[in-house]
Amino acid sequence: MRYPVDVFTGKVRDYTGSRPSAIAKVQIDGELMLTELGLTGDEQAEAKIHGGPDRALCHYPREHYQHWRQAFPEQAELFVAPAFGENLSTEGLTEENVYIGDIFQWGEALIQVTQPRSPCFKLNFHFGISDMACQMQDAGKTGWLCSVVAAGLVSADAPLILASRVSDVSVREAIAIAWHMPFDDSQYHRLLSAAGLSKSWTRTMQKRRLSGKIEDNSRRLWGK
C-alpha cells in the first residue's frame, strides 16, 4: 500500500501561561532533507522530552480529527492538520494497523515506528481544553513517533510505503499496555520484546518491572 502524506514543520514560539513550544506547524511542499534528528527546519522546544533520534518525526492520522470535532463542536475549527503538532499526516494508517517497529520507505529515506506519542500538558494550552492531553491518551488517538533508519530527501509527493513489519505489537496495543490496564508484568515484557521500541519506552517499561508499580504521569499530563 502507498499512503499519500502531508508534511509539516514548526519553529519554537512562546505561549502565555505555558512553556515555549513548536507545536504550531506549517505545511511544506517540495523536497526537504530528513536527517536522523528530523526534518530540516523543524524545531523542538525541549529536547529532553521531544525530538531526538528515537522521536525524530510525529505522525498523526488525519481521520482522527472528525472524532475531535464531534467531541468539541465549539472548537471544531481548531481540529484540522497539523493541530496536534504532527510532521506527517495521512489517511489509512491508524494505531490499529501500524505496529511498533514498522519500517516505512519515504522518498530516499527509511523511517521506523518507535512508540505511541505520549500526550503532554502543552496540548491543554494549545487547544484551550484543560484536560486535552488526558482525553487524547484515554481515547487512544495519540498518533506515534518515528526514528530515521536511513536519511535522505523526502517530500509530500513521495508516499509512505510499508517496507517491513518486525513486531506483533500494534501502536494501539502499546497504548493499552502503557496507560489503559493495571500493572501487568507479562505485557510489559511483551512490549519490551517489540523490535524498534524507543529507549524512552524501554526504560519506562523496565522500571515498572523492577519497581512493581506504574509511574506517576500527572506532571506530563497536567504540568504539575
From TrEMBL:
InterPro entries in the record, alphabetically? Benzoxazolinone_Detox_Enz, MoCF_Sase_C, Pyrv_Knase-like_insert_dom_sf, Tri_helical_YiiM-like
A Pfam cross-reference name: MOSC
Question: Where would I find the MOSC domain in this sequence?
Answer: 26-163
Q: Which PROSITE patterns match?
A: MOSC (PS51340)
- Name one molecular function that GO assigns to this entry: pyridoxal phosphate binding
* Cross-referenced SUPFAM superfamilies: PK beta-barrel domain-like
Name of the featured protein? 6-N-hydroxylaminopurine resistance protein
Source organism per UniProt:
Citrobacter freundii
